[in-house]
User: What shape does this take?
Amino acid sequence: MKAGILLVEDDHFFAKVLKRYLEKADYEVIYCENGERGLETFQQRPFDACLLDVLMPGKDGFSLAREIRERDDHVPLFFISSRFMEEDKLTGFRSGADGYLGKPFNFEELALRIRVFLKRARLQPSRRLLYNIGTLTFDYTELKIMHPESGSCVCLPPKEAELLKYLCENANRKIKRENILMHVWGVDDFFVGRSMDVYMTRLRKHFRVDPTVKLETMHGQGFRFSFDNKARPSYVTAALHN
Assistant: This one.
């Protein structure tokens, strides 16, 4: 069964060319010409990925992305836009994007990025991967942080979960900024680096419930994700719920 992609783009010629390319790459592409129609279509059926333009009449791409994220935290979401200023990219990532490509871009690069995200999504492990972080439990498989003492639970976007997993795997040591960018995003880029800072700020908010968990910025060096000695991370698997 072909993976379904929602393409929302008001440039009909560009959308036609991109749709044809992705269909040749063996994807099913559903095209919508504006944000309102894109949201209606997203609510009608499941999609494996979403490609959104930013500048559209009526509902713009950023607004559409936020509404999609309210309904689905996990679907891979990419912006494809002629707006490529720093603030535009940051707004895109704050809106829940997993990637942001400026027009014109390489169609093959986009197809490869989609393939990577779909491969991750389809890796359905028979067991759940859990990380103990102080009094918190990070469920990487189900993309959430749980605080058993309070009963609270926070759902994470896929990219934020990838970042936290990498931090857990390198806990209690200095991690170079460029190493995080290359491992999690695959590129050491200024704009992506700014979006990483946004994710770091969001993660710190999740850890406020446990003062033994610290995510420190080491200026000019990188980051350190550290725990109280009693709360060193352990990597545990637990059976998935039926």
Q: What stands out?
A: The chain has eight helices and 13 strands. Residues 47 and 144 are 21 Å apart (CA to CA). The chain has two domains: 4-122, 127-239.
